[in-house]
Amino acid sequence: TVFSGAIFQKIGYILGTFCGVSKLSICNPTLLIYLCCSSLLFPGLIQREGGSMEQEMGELRRYRTQSISRGEFALSDSFYFYRKGLESIVDDQVTQRFSSEELVSWNLLTRTNHNFHYISLRLTVIWGLGVIIRYCVLFPLRITLAIIGISWLVIGTTLVGFLPNRRVKNWLSELVHLMCYRICARGLSATIQYHNKNNKPQKGGICVANHTSPIDIVILANDGCYAMVGQSHSGLMGVIQRSMVRSCPHVWFERSEMRDRHAVTSRLRAHVAAKRNLPILIFPEGTCINNTSVMMFKKGSFEIGGTIYPVAIKYDPRFGDAFWNSAKYNMVSYLLRMMTSWAIVVNVWYLPPMTRQEGEDATKFANRVKSAIAHQGGLLDMAWDGSLKRDKVKEEFKEHQQKMYSSMVVGKKARNSQEPHTESSKS
Amino acid sequence: MGSRASTLLREEEIEEIKKETGFSHSQITRLYSRFTSLDKGENGTLSREDFQRIPELAINPLGDRIINAFFPEGEDQVNFRGFMRTLAHFRPIEDNEKNKDPIASEPLNSRSNKLLFAFRLYDLDRDDKISRDELLQVLRMMVGVNISDEQLGSIADRTIQEADQNGDNSISFNEFIKVGNVYILYIDIDIDI
């Protein structure tokens, strides 16, 4: 793979200059051809006011004649809600997070081609070339690597599991895990850049990261060993899980156990307390988000105690769309799509460890960690719950809006409760 | 989400919508993208559930009324034309439209059409007047459980008293225009492509 990698790199540079590519600084055997076709700009569709209900209602009421006093109800008050509603129909902040990010310019993958325009013959030819390279050259190589990687994981960990000795076993187990994840990463043509390695998660800690896809695990495990947390599956996943547990402790839950929050928390707490155990890897969002924002962190992970090591993961969408839209694709077709993209280019930032402060409750702590991760990764920090992907929004948010409006009409002074869905802007 | 969004929308259709609504070509294709992303069933129409799936709309106290406005009398599905027609009401009035030929048919986003639309959000039974009950319904939606029936009733009474001019204890469209005219442009949405 090293040798073929060098060849690909050379080819990449040559073809790159031929097609007028400016910057190609990836040390990765995959090549990318850039052609800025029609530039499709997709910032927000409309300019939204960022103000609170009071501010915006104040705007609306500015033209009131003196016959109505400032606070009272008028027929035009409903216009505020109509506008907000229509704005959200045209463009809203939440539903777009559950589908792939739209690109500024096309990266020659049909899957990211949402507004298809036939541009030119040259582009189609180059696209065709791209297809051949991706499917006939890169894909078989990657599949082979992936198979080797996973088989080695199963075989290696089972073998290590037979060893009795503590220290040698741990060392070997780490070696096996690392090797296999590195092979798998090559199998996806992943180029990973780790930043601030001095903040890497330590034993007995908890590593939290934003979640975009199942590949996140491979990305993180390339640079260190973690104890995985998750549901025990059957089938191939189950085989992998059971053999992994043989060489070092991971935390796998039965489906029934996962409903009992206390049981989950106490098991995790026990794992963290044993200081020799590998750091746990948790994704507090609970579901895959499309890597443009970080959604609400579930507070359960932050009640365990111990030190939190936040990690920000940002994929470069130009090379391949890493987001797993589980409603649209199952795991296998998702992995196939990954393996036929150009590459996975990803930046991982290790942030300084955080602990819960005096008087800070789990929710506040979770939000603090979330902001830090969003800020580092250049993602939008949102307070909306990722489970809105599947579930309906809670009634209490609507009730909160009603309460706020009521207090404006009846004329009470400003309350001190915060809006539950405030958004801070992208930093 | 359809991967070839604009090819599913034919050029003739885009032209027709352009003429009817006044949106530009790029606005129409962009909104079509939005329409298809909301259309989970992928059958070319939106149902009320599709709208409810937008969290920001679901928490809007008047969300149901707004959603209702997209659906014609008695129907449960709205196609793209209907969707655009409704949104067209809130397209800002451009300067070159202000001095249009008065014989030509009124554009969808004329001031009085906007006001009619806002009026209909109150006037559910379409009898061209807002009765005390209808007003109370909307008020109740806006304030939830936080204001008592009595207080709400007196607010409704006061509002009708101030707006009502012919003494029939309800607000007709003309009376509504007088109250709402100043504010109606607030609802306008500038779709920025």
Kindly describe this structure.
The complex is a heterodimer of chains A (427) and B (193). Chain A is of the alpha/beta class. Helices cover 42% and strands 9% of the residues of chain A. The N terminus and C terminus of chain A are likely disordered. With 193 residues, chain B is mainly α. Chain B is 55% helix and 4% strand. Chain B has 12 helices and 4 strands; from the N terminus they run H-H-H-E-H-H-H-E-H-H-H-E-H-H-E-H. In chain B, strands 1-2 form a two-stranded antiparallel ribbon. In chain B, strands 3-4 form a two-stranded antiparallel sheet. In chain B, helix 10 packs across helix 11. The N terminus of chain B is likely disordered. Chains A and B meet through helix 3 and helix 12 of A and helix 1, helix 3, helix 5, helix 9 and helix 10 of B.
Helix content of chain A: 40-55%
Q: Record the strand order, biggest sheet of chain B.
A: 1-2
Structure annotation, total helices of chain B: 12
SS content category of chain A: alpha/beta
List how many beta strands of chain A DSSP finds: 9
Average pLDDT, all residues of chain A:
76
Question: What is the 3D shape of chain A?
Answer: globular
**Average pLDDT value of chain B?**
83
Shape of chain B: globular
N/C terminus separation of chain A? 39 Å
Backbone CA Rg of chain B: 19 Å
Q: What proportion strand of chain B?
A: under 5%
Distance between the termini of chain B: 20 Å
Q: Strand order across the biggest sheet of chain A? A: 1-8-7-2-5-3-4
Radius of gyration of chain A: 25 Å
Oligomer: heterodimer
The ordered string of helix (H) and strand (E) elements of chain A is: HHHHHEEHEHEHHEEEHEHEH
Number of helices of chain A: 12
Order of helices and strands of chain B: HHHEHHHEHHHEHHEH
Main location (chain B): membrane
Organism (chain B): Oncorhynchus tshawytscha (Chinook salmon)
Domain EF-hand (chain B): 26-61, 110-145, 151-186
Family (chain B): Belongs to the calcineurin regulatory subunit family. CHP subfamily.
